[in-house]
Amino acid sequence: MNVLLRKCSLSTLVSQPSKSTFLRCLAQMSSKVNFDELVKDKPIVVFMKGTPKAPRCGFSNAVCQILEFHGIKSFDSYDVLSNEDIRQGVKEYTNWPTIPQVFFNGEFLGGCDIMLEMHKSGELIEELKKIGIRSALLDKA
Amino acid sequence: MSSDEKPVENAVRQKLTEALKPQFLDIINEGYMHNMPKENESYFKVIIVSTAFENVKRLQKHQLVHQAIQEEIDNKIHALSIVAKTPAEWEASQDVGKSPPCQGGAGL
């Protein structure tokens, strides 16, 4: 039990007792994978099918292409097809049923549809700015 | 296919209509884009316009759709593309985008 509790910081539970945080901590306790550790302190993490160089799903490919379009040369990614614990666990972690899933600085942004909308509206440039990345689109005339 | 042969699509339509009372709802079976036979009902695009999405963040709009059709998502639907707009957003733009082509996947 101590090991399980350590996976999810007690201080998080006490200081931010929102329902989503509570559910996330519960998911962490039962998960074999510590998703907090996988996503926090990393600017961009994508859970996808395949790899950025060889995506195996059109939606995952679209996310990689959007990031590339904004000049992101590399980012952390996890191929859910090669790890069933990650594939199922990330869906419980975010309470989101589909892959790909995109995180900026540990915060879940959404999947392909949301990334596309944010790209079209210009919001993605702002979100990248928040994590200290200047979008390549700002340098294009 | 007759409507009897589209149980998943029918269930999705009914549940979204009940839960979100949409002004506009379109459910597109995109199985054909993934080399699926026409009877296959596991790849969908949902376009939904509802006042339920007013003052709701983007992530939460999608979550509202997920919650309404949780059972289908858990058991039947493999991939789901969602366009969720308020009536004002829909009036401003009816662009629903085009779902990306299949990359083959792994048959998983």
From TrEMBL, chain A:
The keyword Metal-binding applies. GO terms for molecular function: 2 iron, 2 sulfur cluster binding; metal ion binding. This is Glutaredoxin-related protein 5, mitochondrial. One of its GO terms (cellular component) is mitochondrial matrix. CDD domains: GRX_PICOT_like (cd03028). Residues 44-108 form the Glutaredoxin domain. Keywords: 2Fe-2S, Iron, Iron-sulfur, Metal-binding, Redox-active center. It comes from the Eukaryota. It comes from Elysia marginata. SUPFAM superfamilies: Thioredoxin-like.
TrEMBL record, chain B:
It holds the Pfam family BolA. GO terms for cellular component: mitochondrion. SUPFAM superfamilies: BolA-like (SSF82657). It comes from the Eukaryota. Belongs to the BolA/IbaG family. This is BolA 1-like protein. It comes from Elysia marginata.
